[in-house]
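Margin note: ligand = S-adenosyl-L-homocysteine.
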Amino acid sequence: MINLYGLELTKLEELMISYGQKRYRATQLFTWLYEKKARSFDEMSDVSKSFREVLNKDFCLELPKLYRRQDSKDGTIKILLELNDGSKVETALMPYRYGNAICVSSQVGCNMACAFCASGLLKKKRNLEVSEIVGQVLVMNSILEEKNEKVTHIVVMGTGEPFDNYDNVLDFIRIMNHPKGMAIGARHITVSTCGLIPGIMRYAHEGLQINLAISLHAPNDEIRNKIMPISKGYPLPKLMEAVKYYEKEANRRVTFEYIMLKGVNDSLECAKELVKLIKGTLAYVNLIPYNPVDENSFLRSDDKTVHAFFSYLLQHGVNTTIRKEFGNDIDAACGQLRAKDQHEKGN
Ligand code: SAH
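Resulting structure:
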């Protein structure tokens, strides 16, 4: 059985042609799936009965199951989804003034082993299929439908490293972005990487106007090596070269994410080094208040320290923002809900 939610339009076209169908059949199906929100082939009234039989025989429309849900007072919704093989992934919805941003996971677990992150507590079990990433958005949309709302922005910032599952993440984005698909504008979609340079180089040539965020979190390799092991393979000078290459080829600016960790990377000396490091790029910096995780000893920086760091960057010509926080009363940090669920179940 092929899950139709896993096919972006050009792949669906090829498949339909291999079934002796006309190319437009794919667009028709796409419209049924994403615009008309059909949940069965029998609803597809303009598809002949005989081809619907073929569809029912060889294809399915399968979504992950809603396993657990947490709602925060501020409107954040966090869900844990169960996949076919019993794996669980988490997805969050953050209500911004400008729209509803969903944070999707790209892998079951993560191998990047960032010291501060709850996702890495569970090693990567496997990549998510395209349909399982698409499914996160569709399940969230069915929750939002109750309030006549829908997902308007997507960040691939949940569990997993998107560039370690490059092809599936890109197909997912094509389905989200396509006018006949979910029709979410490229500028409303952001992929976040811990700095896999080959992925950044490839992304530069996709010809999509999608946003790229890079988890930097340190102004030099000495600190970065301690908290982000990926830095050993892809050191900062090379990462900065890749960013400049991307800016030139894709004609887009990147955002550097920088978690403020008390006593680790939050000094003014670090701010000074950061200004030097990113000089020559057009990047923005997004300072992230750390969301403490029970399993490690990192602490969030004081507000005063964050503001001093913020002001230093601004004064030195770096476009900087401080990330708005969501869901502090629920397990909002990446991977926390899944880790908690496993912990409670004792496995
Ligand atoms: N692997 C990708 C995407 C997933 S992590 C990446 O590294 O970018 C998404 C973002 O959340 C990253 O910037 C990550 O460093 C950050 N993050 C992880 N744990 C966090 C926590 N406890 N508090 C705040 N941000 C966290």
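The mean pLDDT is 94.
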